[in-house]
Structure formats: structure tokens, C-alpha cells
Write a structure and sequence with these properties.
The model has no long low-confidence stretch (mean pLDDT 77). The chain has 84 residues and is an alpha+beta fold. Strand 1 and strand 2 form a beta hairpin. The N and C termini lie far apart (65 Å).
């Protein structure tokens, strides 16, 4: 291994260990007096999603496909989703 590899590998390992510990320490820092029993004076914001009904629309037609045995009339169908 080259000298660069011997320096880069431990440096990357130390950096990844440092990054892995950052979120854990950030979650542990809370002001004194806040605990699991402390809750906000109001509930969590509620998001309501009311999608319009979705249904499937289809269009069909016949096309001629050329086969080794000769031209064949073949049905084709194209479908898509559409809201009301």
C-alpha cells in the first residue's frame, strides 16, 4: 500500500465514527426541566389528505401486425389513470 492509503484509511474511519456519534449527542442535549412528561400546550398539527377519486381510463384499437404467416389483426389497449 502506498503512504497515502495508510494515512487515508484511519482518517476516514475516525471521521465516520465522529459523524456516527453526532446525532446521538445532539438528541441528548435538552434544557433542564424538560423531560418526557413535558408536552406542548397544543397537540400535533394534523394534516388531512382528501384525494379525489381516481379511476382507470382505457382506449383500445386494432392494428395490423406483420407475422411470418402473414398480416394479423391484433387488439391493442392503452390505459391511464385519471382523476374526476
Amino acid at each position: 500500500m502506498s503512504r497515502k492509503h495508510l494515512i487515508a484509511i484511519p482518517a476516514l474511519a475516525a471521521l465516520s465514527a465522529l459523524v456516527a456519534t453526532l446525532p446521538a449527542t445532539a438528541q441528548m442535549t435538552t434544557p433542564i426541566g424538560d423531560g418526557p412528561s413535558a408536552s406542548p400546550p397544543f397537540g400535533r398539527p394534523r394534516i388531512e389528505i382528501n384525494p379525489r377519486p381516481v379511476y382507470r381510463r382505457c382506449a383500445s384499437r386494432y392494428v395490423i401486425q406483420y407475422r411470418p404467416s402473414g398480416p394479423v389483426l391484433f387488439p391493442e389497449k392503452y390505459c391511464w389513470w385519471q382523476r374526476w
